[in-house]
Every structure is written in structure tokens, then in C-alpha cells.
Amino acid sequence: MLRPVLRVCTGATGSFGLVVAIALLLKPQVDAWANVWERLWLKDGTTWGSSKEKGLSAAFGLFMAAGIAADWALKRWIGECPDEARSLSRPTTR
Fold first, then answer.
1. Torsion of CA 64, 17, 55, 34, to 10 degrees
2. Based on C-alpha coordinates, what's the Rg of the chain?
3. Which of 1, 23, 64, 65 pairs as cysteine with 33 (C-beta 3.0–4.6 A)?
4. Tens of pLDDT along 15-24?
């Protein structure tokens, strides 16, 4: 149960950072993503719902899905670190 939750959390964190970086580097900046916290105190922003904002929202979902799929594929093809797997399955007492 922990691994799927960790997959989603790391995928969301990585894709969020990537999309915010893209939004900041675009000229002109996409304010809806460049300052995502404004949604907490503004009822309606001027750039909300624009095509660039929708594109970055779609990119967030795609990057998140790609991150989750990459983590799953790496776990399936390469496996876990043997030291971590052993320590999680059988805790040793010293």
C-alpha cells in the first residue's frame, strides 16, 4: 500500500515542479501556473481558463502519469535495492 501512494506523491511533486518551471520560463509567463497560490485568495483570475493554462494543466497530468509509469517500470525491470528490501522485510536487532 505504501509503494502506490509514494508513486503518486513523487509523480505529482515532480510534475508540479516541472510545470511551474515551464510556466516561469515561458515568455510571457503563464500567471495561472507561475503563481499557483493566487487561487487561494482570488475568486477569478485574468488568465484562468486560457489555452496556455489548460495546456500546462494537461502537461501536469501527462508528466504525472509518465512519472508513475517510469517508477513502476523501473521497479518491475530492475527491482529494489537488496539492502532496503532485506531491511524492510526482516528488521535486524543489534
1. 160
2. 19
3. 23
4. 999 998 998 8
3-state class percentages of the chain: helix first, strand second, coil last, to nearest 5: 70, 0, 30
Quick one: which H or E segment has residue 64? helix 51-77
Tell me which residue has cell 493566487: 38
Gap between the Cα atoms of 59 and 61, Å rounded: 5
Which grid cell is 86?
532485506
Are 32 and 53 contacting, i.e. CB atoms less than 8 angstroms apart? yes
Q: Provide the grid cell at 47.
A: 488568465
pLDDT of 53-82, one tens digit each? 888 889 999 999 999 999 888 888 887 666
